[in-house]
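TASK: fixed-backbone design
INPUT:
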């Protein structure tokens, strides 16, 4: 009896100590302001560089070759655009690469737009974050070329499907149609420095 009482007392103390109140993070709020030119330029450069590389690889070795470009080059291109006070990446509600998960501030917006047409969403959104920072989302629509790797799995050529499965075992990024919202470019930046 005494041992049970002692165990209950210890468990109660541990539960109280373990439940210290942690302040909730400040809610992310969308704001009506344009992102600075440096943010728009960074996304433009990422889109342009990645698009050129993918088209060149497809011309040389077909879509199977482009899978490696997307897997290796896209993260490298985004990393090359990082600057003090500026982080950039891509995300989606249907990830191909788990490393592209949305930053915490963008998760709700990405989730709320899931499954919609790109024409149905606000294509550019700015969010107020903590400590003078902002988050920017820019929609990525599915175009004709995107359908090669992101369209219905049954329409995908077998060698391409096998290469995607090998490179991305947890792939969710298929089943899109032209005009769908594929995902988002995101930038987190310091709003105090223009």
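OUTPUT:
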């Amino acid at each position: 009896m005494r041992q049970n009482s002692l165990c209950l007392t210890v468990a109660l103390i541990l539960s109280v100590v373990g439940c210290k109140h942690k302040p909730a993070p400040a809610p992310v709020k969308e704001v009506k302001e344009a992102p600075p030119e440096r943010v728009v330029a960074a996304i433009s450069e990422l889109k342009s560089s990645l698009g050129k590389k993918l088209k060149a690889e497809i011309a040389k070795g077909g879509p199977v070759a482009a899978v490696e470009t997307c897997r290796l080059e896209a993260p490298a291109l985004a990393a090359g655009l990082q600057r003090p006070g500026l982080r950039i990446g891509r995300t989606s509600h249907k990830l191909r690469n788990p490393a592209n998960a949305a930053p915490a501030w963008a998760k709700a917006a990405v989730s709320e737009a899931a499954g919609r047409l790109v024409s149905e969403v606000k294509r550019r959104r700015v969010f107020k974050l903590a400590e003078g920072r902002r988050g920017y989302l820019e929609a990525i629509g599915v175009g004709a070329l995107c359908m090669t790797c992101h369209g219905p799995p049954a329409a995908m050529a077998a060698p391409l499907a096998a290469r995607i499965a090998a490179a991305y075992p947890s792939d969710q990024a298929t089943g899109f149609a032209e005009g769908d919202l594929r995902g988002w470019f995101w930038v987190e930046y310091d709003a105090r420095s223009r």
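COMMENT: The helical segments are 2-18, 37-80, 107-112, 147-150, 158-167.
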